Automatic annotation (TrEMBL):
It comes from Faecalitalea cylindroides. The keyword Endoplasmic reticulum does not apply. Coiled coil: none annotated. This is SAM-dependent methyltransferase. The keyword Glycosyltransferase does not apply. Pfam families: Methyltransf_3.
Length: 193
């Protein structure tokens, strides 16, 4: 079985929250459009996106950060099996706690804990190259950002409020402009003005 198929089946069987296919395709299209050669991902999960991005170009360098030991274990297996281990660096730890990588990136992909998006952006945006992009997934959060009345769960309501705050935070930034794409679960692409 090929690795992509294996990873998809593993994700399904183990309820691993991987990016929706439409979102992945948009992300890949943007990485190509902006000619990105360095990619930082917050939230590796099983390294499905990290491997896909690394496979785009032998020059591509991917750094990806994950805090969950079970995900880390599976990500390592998949990265090794993919053959892209020379292009992918997996940092183990909480993205809000680990030391900043000592390099800049053409693309920063924010896909870790949704409640922390604003903190991730503040911590990692200084690492963005001048023509680079920051991509954030789950901007719609299953339609609940537009229709928060569709849930009564307090934790979900809290999360939705934090994602809405992140929308407002992005709009309030003077040096950045953001375009929101209705692909997958809603994908934001932010770049310097
Ligand atoms: C939606 S999944 C990532 C999917 C992956 N980016 C992909 O495209 O296949 C979110 C991952 O972020 C990890 N995560 C959440 N908060 C984190 C944090 N503060 N630091 C590092 N990893 C985090 C979770 O353990 C989970 O594996």
């Amino acid at each position: 079985m090929n690795l992509e198929k294996e990873m998809n089946e593993f994700a399904k069987a183990n309820h691993v929250p991987v990016m929706m296919d439409e979102g992945v395709e948009l992300l890949i299209a943007k990485v190509k459009e902006y000619n990105c050669k360095s990619f930082l991902e917050l939230g590796t999960a099983i390294a499905r996106t990290a491997i896909r991005v690394a496979s785009l170009d032998p020059e591509m360098r991917v750094v990806t950060i994950e805090r969950n030991p079970e995900m880390i274990e599976q990500a390592k297996i998949n990265i090794k099996q993919s053959g892209y281990q020379n292009q992918i660096t997996l940092i183990e730890g909480d993205a809000l706690e680990v030391e900043l990588p000592d390099q800049k990136f053409d693309c920063i992909f924010i896909d870790a804990a949704k409640a922390q998006y604003t903190r991730f952006f503040k911590k990692y945006s200084p690492l963005l190259n001048s023509n680079g992009i920051i991509v954030t997934d789950n901007m719609y959060f299953h339609g609940l950002v537009e229709h928060p009345e569709n849930t009564n769960n307090k934790n979900t309501k809290d999360l939705v409020r934090k994602i809405r705050n992140y929308h407002e935070f992005l709009s309030s930034l003077d040096e950045f402009e953001t375009t929101l794409y209705s692909k997958g679960d809603g994908v934001a692409v932010t770049r310097r003005k």
